[in-house]
């Protein structure tokens, strides 16, 4: 199966979702973050942020999803969905095709960076007789459901390395694991920040299965090489060389002087941004282990920080958790895109140092 087809299907998914306008106006703005599967890292990070938002006596609903592409489009099109966690290669894919495809250009309009997060490991659990990435040729491999970041990353990696599978199955990791154990497939991809719950909460037979090393020079030139420490999972006692992709928290460019929905959403984005920055040490100590490797200054190329995020991380920002409502509504005009990232870096340096 040639992997131009999955990539074409991905572009079609984007195109069919792009006729939708920006999030609709509403009288109230409940807060939502779209994450991932119940066994993934995104949902655990979302729960960390939800607990943080409780300091404002305000809820942040954590919503399961198929993954990165669904999350990106949810921020773009779903009302009351202020945040989504997305893989950086999804952003690069969207950016690459936006110049030639007006549908993709419409999809990315208004979507902004909230915070860069952490590197996610490309896990490929495979039969022991498959020694390396090249050994996936002519095998039956689950590459993730079509609106997930795993699907995009797997498709890109296979295409870049010139590997053709006998069958590429659009299965979620939770569905792929039992099929691998039953001998119905040979391997499956899963992009998740280690330790991923699917591998820690299931007893995986180390004599039958292992994580594939990824040492392909082409892939290492595109994705960041990394080594997964031995003992990260019970079935994996030795270090494994693989590659990673960065996870990014995305939001929408709400207009702080727009309608009631935009104003309320902007306040929520600013408040959570303020809480993340001022509680980053607590997140690193008490949240998912991946918080320990978050680099708030590592902004993906070609994307800007949202104005409401910059407002929230300004050292002089007074959270609407405590300030009077009338004062909270007096928000400054958003800085231009060219100023957004510089302002973001100045603010994080002022608060946590650089």
Give your account of this protein's structure.
- The protein is an alpha/beta fold and 354 residues long.
- The chain has a domain at 120-246: D-Maltodextrin-Binding Protein, domain 2, CATH 3.40.190.10.
- It is built from 14 helices and 10 strands.
- Strands 1, 2, 3, 4, 5, 6, 7, 8, 9 and 10 form a 10-stranded mixed beta sheet that branches.
- Strand 1, helix 2 (41-53) and strand 2 form a beta-alpha-beta unit.
- Helix 4 packs across helix 5, helix 10 packs across helix 12 (307-313) and helix 12 packs parallel to helix 14.
- Residues 1-5, 17-28 and 323-332 have low confidence and may be disordered.
Short description:
Keywords: Signal. By secondary structure, the protein is α/β, with parallel strands linked by helices.
């Amino acid at each position: 199966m040639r992997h131009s087809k999955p990539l074409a299907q991905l572009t079609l998914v984007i195109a069919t979702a792009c006729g939708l306008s920006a999030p609709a106006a509403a009288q109230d703005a409940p807060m939502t973050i779209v994450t991932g599967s119940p066994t993934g890292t995104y949902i655990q990070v979302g729960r960390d942020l939800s607990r943080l938002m409780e300091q404002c006596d305000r809820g942040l609903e954590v919503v399961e999803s198929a993954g990165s592409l669904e999350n990106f489009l949810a921020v773009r099109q779903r009302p009351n969905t202020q945040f989504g966690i997305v893989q950086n290669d999804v952003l690069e894919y969207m950016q690459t095709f936006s110049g030639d495809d007006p549908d993709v250009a419409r999809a990315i309009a208004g979507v902004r960076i909230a915070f860069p997060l952490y590197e996610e490991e490309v896990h490929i659990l495979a039969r022991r007789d498959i020694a390396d990435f090249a050994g996936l040729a002519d095998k039956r491999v689950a590459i993730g459901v079509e609106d997930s970041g795993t699907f995009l990353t797997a498709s890109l990696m296979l295409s870049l390395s010139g590997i053709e599978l006998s069958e590429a199955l659009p299965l979620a990791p939770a569905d792929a694991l039992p099929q691998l154990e039953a001998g119905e497939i040979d391997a499956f991809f899963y992009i998740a920040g280690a330790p991923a719950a699917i591998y820690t909460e299931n007893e995986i037979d180390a004599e039958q299965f292992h994580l594939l090393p990824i040492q392909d020079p082409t892939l290492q030139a595109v994705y960041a090489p990394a080594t997964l420490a031995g003992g990260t999972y019970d079935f994996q006692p030795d270090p494994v060389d693989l590659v990673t992709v960065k996870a990014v928290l995305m939001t929408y460019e709400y207009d702080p002087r727009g309608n009631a929905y935009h104003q309320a959403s902007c306040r929520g984005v600013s408040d959570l941004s303020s809480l993340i920055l001022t509680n980053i040490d607590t997140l690193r100590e008490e949240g998912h282990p991946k918080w320990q490797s978050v680099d708030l200054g590592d902004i993906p190329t070609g994307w800007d920080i949202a104005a409401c995020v910059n407002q929230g991380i300004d050292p002089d920002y007074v959270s609407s958790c405590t300030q009077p409502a009338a004062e909270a509504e007096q928000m400054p005009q958003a800085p231009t895109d060219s100023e957004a990232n510089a302002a973001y870096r100045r603010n994080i340096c002022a608060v946590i140092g650089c």
